[in-house]
Amino acid sequence: MAIANQALNNPLKSRVSIEDPQAAEKIFIAVMDKFAQYNVYQHRPVVIICIGTDRSTGDCLGPLVGTKLYCQHNNFFELYGNLEQPVHAGNLQEYLNLIQQKHTNPFIIALDACLGSIEHVGQITIGDGSLQPGAGVNKSLPSVGHIYITGIVNVGGFMEYLVLQNTRLNLVMKMADIIVKGLAKVAQECEQQRARSCL
User: Fold this and answer.
1) Does pTM surpass 0.85?
2) How does pLDDT run across 79-99, given as a tens digit for each residue?
3) What NCBIfam families does its record include (predicted)?
């Protein structure tokens, strides 16, 4: 579970409610805007680090998204973190080292669950800058990502571990489905753009 690192270039963010019928489309638009801003289209590898663990209902958003994206067999994203092989506090640095060794100049999207205020529960945030994984539960881990996607799964501020354990799975599943739908459209659009640039 993460918080966005406000100190690392985070002036702009988009927030989308899972109750919005256009939520997946809005995620697609927000991510494509970020790609244009960072000039990602020029055959730069795009890595998604799906952070979290299936040992906690609230914190399984990242691994769920990773698994669902992996099952779509898209070739655009380089995926790290799923239900079978989660990226979490114990192995995050190892995965960051692997990504830097394996990919040249990767553009990294960090994806994680987070806690927030009661009025923001059920919202998905797309923003500039890195995530600070584990900060929501007082763990010190390296910052991750050029941009981030977070799902606000429950209320923060008190007994965070217990809150994560008592998060409704239905909310997390719905959030994961919407994020995957938006990112699948991003992958499709970017693959088409790259194919056109090769003609």
Assistant:
1) yes
2) 999 999 999 988 999 999 999
3) spore_YyaC
